[in-house]
Design a protein that fits this description.
Elements: H1 2-14, H2 24-27, H3 31-38, H4 44-53, H5 57-73, H6 80-89, H7 93-102, H8 106-113, H9 119-128, H10 132-143
Helix pairs in contact: 3-5, 4-5, 5-7, 6-8, 7-8, 8-10, 9-10
Length: about 140
């Protein structure tokens, strides 16, 4: 258990740091090339960085779109724990709401519900989510 917590906090500590420049495409001056590379990334850390800091709106939008896809459905090598940890540091309320509605696993939807802002969305989740635990988490958030 301690090893898991240490890994989680180590990952959080490096969140928001500039992505490793493994790919020539991310170093490119051409936003079209950077956007192409972003669409193929499988780890959330560089996507979070690019969504917040890239100079071009098309690259930032592509990073948010890719991040949304990864958080909702996952990717090879990206664990549920990684996705939940990414959600906890995400400051995009639209992205969090999307995951709360559309996350593949109940656990990721439940993690998003804990971060959701807005009674209207919580009421929608209570009415429409298929998992009773997710609905209950929304009820608890709504009543608090």
């Amino acid at each position: 258990m301690l090893a898991i917590l240490q890994r989680l906090f180590a990952r959080r500590a490096c969140r928001g740091a500039q992505p490793r420049q493994d790919s020539e495409g991310l170093r490119s001056e051409d936003p079209t090339e950077r956007r192409r590379v972003v669409r193929q990334l499988r780890q959330p850390d560089p996507l979070l960085y690019l969504a917040r800091h890239d100079s071009e709106p098309v690259v930032r939008d592509a990073a948010v779109d890719r991040l949304r896809t990864l958080l909702v459905g996952g990717a090879p090598g990206l664990t549920l724990a990684d996705r939940e940890a990414t959600l906890t540091i995400c400051d995009d309320s639209t992205l969090i709401a999307h995951v709360a509605r559309r996350g593949r696993e109940p656990a990721i939807r439940q993690a998003a519900v804990r971060l959701v802002e807005g009674d209207r969305l919580l009421q929608e989740i209570i009415r429409e989510d298929t998992d009773p635990d997710v609905r209950e988490a929304a009820r608890q958030r709504l009543s608090s």
